[in-house]
Design goal:
The structure is a single chain. This protein is α/β, with parallel strands linked by helices. It folds into two domains: 173 residues, Rossmann fold (3-Layer(aba) Sandwich), CATH 3.40.50; 147 residues, 3-Layer(aba) Sandwich (Rossmann fold), CATH 3.40.50. 28% of the residues lie in helices and 24% in strands. Strands 7-6-5-8-4-1-2-3-9 form a nine-stranded mixed β-sheet, with helices on both faces. Strand 13, helix 8 and strand 14 form a beta-alpha-beta unit. Helix 3 packs across helix 4 and helix 5 runs parallel beside helix 9. The longest helix has 17 residues. It is elongated, with a radius of gyration of 23 Å. 40% of the residues are buried. Bound molecules: flavin-adenine dinucleotide. Flavin-adenine dinucleotide (FAD) binds next to helix 6, helix 7, strand 13 and helix 9.
Length: 342
């Protein structure tokens, strides 16, 4: 009989669980009910009270590691916390969100417990056995894995399950004591780009992709890069969309030539870039070539604006293609969005 542990952690507020943690709770509940297995949820946070109440209706056993020392992500304390939760639950299957906080400690914890780990898991199936699905070779080959080794750690990719949500209730939580290692790392503060400089937003409903066309000569024979920058940033500001790019456009920023200064290779979508997950995507001034579109595998509804009626998008890769000038379309859309806000 399997025993399932879902590891969760708090967000920056210190008391609410992250969305990725709540998605992992959903995956754990589905798996436990399918296997008729025992479910435990482990919480790592400074103060577990609010998070534990949000999990009251799961019916799971709740274990918590709490205290100021767990407020900040830090390898030594997070690994010790996860290790203690795994031992307290005696879990054979451990599900964790693939957050930067847990992704960096999960392999180490699996090793400490003599277990095995698989990462980038997108689905967990099977009724008698556990079948973990993940993609290989830049999302081109989908594999289904089973393992006999226990404990088996599965790191779940964000956006693959609905986040668990229910009215808070009163939950009983068991505090787990952690033997803390010597702490050599202290967090003195966080340096992060300003919110409007942060263009990669994994939780956004829309992915807005920019292509090299934004920097090419336009029908008037001129290039309009600063106008393009204003339109793109205006659209992002109005919609809260996440910014993706084709490789051709981000490559132009190499060799010290900053064409659109807010774009880096981290924005690149495709075979040699990222494969983000968003319900909708809108490509602009992008040709829709296969090495780019392969990164759209997990985009629910695809639309594109291109001047070229024969571009890759119109050849069956997008649900809707507007054969139009993206400068004009986005300027109009931005005006409409600005008027809506007033
Ligand atoms: C091994 C390999 C890996 C690769 N990996 C990636 C990858 O990860 N990601 C990636 O993106 N590419 C990748 N590529 C490159 C990819 O094949 C394409 O070259 C690239 O995606 C093209 O970028 P683009 O569509 O922005 O530019 P272009 O092909 O130059 O297309 C620009 C488009 O903009 C349109 N346009 C111009 N002005 C306007 C306007 N005013 N309004 C509307 N449309 C306009 C044009 O009609 C044109 O269709 C890879 C290639 C190789 C060989």
């Amino acid at each position: 009989m399997e025993s399932i542990l879902v590891l969760t952690h708090a967000d920056e507020s210190g008391s609410a669980l992250t969305k990725a943690s709540l998605e992992t709770v959903t995956a754990g509940m589905e798996l436990a009910s399918r296997l008729r297995a025992e479910l435990t949820i482990g919480i790592v946070s400074a103060n577990a009270t609010t998070s534990q109440d949000s999990l009251a209706s799961t019916g799971a056993r709740l274990l918590a590691v709490s205290g100021e020392v767990f407020a900040q992500p830090r390898y030594s304390t997070d690994a010790a916390a996860c290790d203690a939760l795994c031992r307290a639950s005696a879990a054979t299957i451990v599900l964790t969100p693939s957050s930067s906080r847990f992704a960096r400690v999960a392999a180490g914890v699996a090793h400490r417990l003599n277990g095995l780990i698989d990462t980038h898991v997108t689905a967990i199936g099977g009724t008698d056995t556990i079948e973990a699905t993940r993609w290989f070779y830049r999302q081109r080959v989908e594999a289904v894995l089973t393992r006999d080794a226990r404990p088996w750690f599965l790191l779940l990719d964000a956006g693959t399950h609905a986040a668990f949500a229910s009215a808070p209730g009163k939950a009983q939580v068991e505090q787990v004591t952690v033997e803390l290692p010597t702490i050599r790392t202290t967090v003195s503060g966080i340096r992060a780009p300003k919110l409007d400089e942060q263009t990669i937003r994994p939780d956004a409903k829309l992915l807005f992709v920019t292509g090299a066309g934004w920097t090419k000569k336009q029908p008037d024979g001129q290039i309009h890069v600063s106008e393009a920058a204003g339109l793109i940033l205006g659209f992002l500001r109005h919609t809260g969309a996440s910014l993706g790019s084709s490789k051709s456009l981000v490559d132009q920023g190499g060799e010290g030539n900053s064409v659109l200064p807010f774009l880096t290779h981290l924005n690149q979508v495709g075979q040699t870039g990222a494969t983000p997950r968003h319900p909708k995507g809108l490509a602009t001034c992008c040709h829709g070539e296969e090495p780019h579109v392969v990164g759209w595998r997990f985009i629910g509804e695809r639309r594109a604006i291109s001047l070229d009626p024969n571009c890759g998008w119109t050849r069956g890769k997008a649900d809707v293609v507007y054969v139009a000038d993206a400068f004009q379309v986005i300027a109009n859309v931005n005006e409409l969005l600005a008027a809506r806000v007033k």
